Amino acid sequence: MDRKITRKVMVGSVAVGGGEPISVQSMTNTPTSDVDATVEQIRRLEAVGCDIVRVAVPNRESAEAIRKIKEQIHIPIVADIHFDYKLALAALEAGADKLRINPGNIGSEELVEAVAHAAKERGVPIRVGVNAGSIDKKRYGMPSAESLVESGLDQVRILERMGFEDIVISLKAFDVPMTIRAYELASKRCDYPLHLGVTEAGPAWEGTIRSAVGIGALLAEGIGDTLRVSLTADPVEEVRVGKEILASLGLYLKPFTLISCPTCGRCAIDISGTVDEVRRRLEANPPRKPLTVAVMGCVVNGPGEASLADVGIAGGRGSAALFVRGQMTRKVAEEELVDELMKEVERLSSDP
Questions:
Q1: Which of 155, 193, 233, 350 lies in disulfide reach of 237, CB 3.0 to 4.6 Å?
Q2: What pLDDT was estimated at residue 230?
């Protein structure tokens, strides 16, 4: 799909914008001052493919902890700052790779300028983050797509007046149509990289759907350079959902893609249990090159779908047909089908 090419900024070693791969972010929920707990969580995020991590910086201790955290992780770290410009300066001094601020709530223009100067001196970008719940209603009225964009661009202009243009913009709302419209408007009005997200999306199940609709719709239009799925859940789930959204649009190549049919009265094998076991084994031992794996439960659509995958099974009564690269190779008993399927995954993964 065609993507809008925006300016490129560097967040540590990760390029954002400029047509670079879309990065997936998350935010820790540990006290940043607790270095060990924060590092442990970031390492879990790294393990599932997180590209950039953000930490809250509510106090000086948290800002100073960034230095020790950075020594023990492998991805760029973003400092989330509100109200106190001194915390932004301390986070930069500690090695933050990016700041997330609203210039309007940092203080006077002299204080914003001090932050912008320190960030520019270190080559650190700033994300201007606007949420529907935090815009100035006296100035912009009730939250709308238009007010989100105006508020965001006003914040951007503060930095531009100071000669700072290493900027990323986010314009988030809980309302999905409002969010989509805001990013569409912003994409037309500026060429800064856009950080996509639906804010306060909710618990894991509801938030996953809401985020997939909002973020997915924008990505399908070619809008967006980095994203965070905001869930009331383990941050690891945010990364998994984000990666899956990208993979669904062909914007990320996963180690494996697992296809399975919905259950129905024709299923002749335990399709749910089989899919769960196949997923568990694939996650524990991912293929060394991307493979599509199909687990189908009956003879109606099963053979066709299984034959389109790199490797797949189509269930029959008490057994399943095993397909490899479009050809049925053999039938296997139901109790053996996961083992046999994984043997073929391993063999294909090892092929030159």
A1: 233
A2: 94
- C-alpha to C-alpha distance for 187 and 223, rounded to whole angstroms: 7
Which regions of the chain does DSSP assign to beta strands (E)? 9-11, 14-16, 23-27, 52-56, 77-80, 98-101, 126-131, 167-172, 195-196, 226-228, 256-260, 291-296, 311-316, 319-324, 327-333
Domain 256-350, CATH: 3.30.413.10
End-to-end CA distance of the chain: 29
Q: CATH code for 9-248? A: 3.20.20.20
Say how many CA atoms lie within 13 Å of 236 toward its Cβ. Answer: 11
Sequence-ordered list of residues with C-beta below 8 angstroms from that of 190, at least 6 positions apart, any chain:
153, 156, 169
Predicted local distance difference test score (pLDDT) of residue 198? 94
> Both tokens of residue 177?
């149509």
The one-character DSSP state at 183 is H
Burial status of residue 75 (CB atoms within 10 A of its CB: 0-12, 13-18, 19 or more): buried
Ordered by start, the domain boundaries in the chain are: 9-248, 256-350
Residue 42's alpha-carbon distances to 45, 68, 90, 171, in angstroms, are 5, 13, 21, 25
Q: 0.85 cut: is pTM over it?
A: yes
* pLDDT single digits (tens) 319-349: 888 889 988 888 888 888 899 899 999 999 8
Is 42 strand, coil or helix? Answer: helix
Q: Is 28 helix (H, G, I), strand (E, B) or coil?
A: coil
Q: How far apart are CA 155 and CA 186, in angstroms?
A: 13
Report the C-alpha gap between 115 and 89 in whole angstroms. Answer: 6
Pick from 303, 301, 254, 318: nearest CA to 282 = 254
